[in-house]
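Category: protein sequence paired with discrete backbone structure
Discipline: computational structural biology
Format: plain text, a pair of labelled lines
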Amino acid sequence: MTQRANPSIGFSQKDARHLHHPHDDALIVSIRARDYNMHQVLVDNGSSADILYCPAFQQMGIGREQLVPTNAPLIGFGGTRVYPLGVVTLSVMVGDYPQQVTKDVAFLVVDYSSAYNAILE
């Protein structure tokens, strides 16, 4: 199987068959990160970082010793500053065989409540 340097994920008219157009619905997907099936992942092109919320991080069984420290705050969570617990790089798989994309993603882990488990930029 040929690997592409920058694989892309696309959506067809068939994928949008249950949407009312024009729409402004959020794109919520499921991914496989590490060996964990993660649901409720928001795809946000306007985001400046890939975010992993602490409850999902804990459910994945990853130890805090695997976090790489960072001191850069995130702004935008209700206008407040949120300081990440650290950065963790996970292998993320999206799609179904034979149209799968696997990529290493550096997530900022934040201890903040959200309706989502993660945000992908």
Observations:
- The two ends are 27 Å apart (CA to CA).
- The CA atoms of residues 26 and 43 lie 8 Å apart.
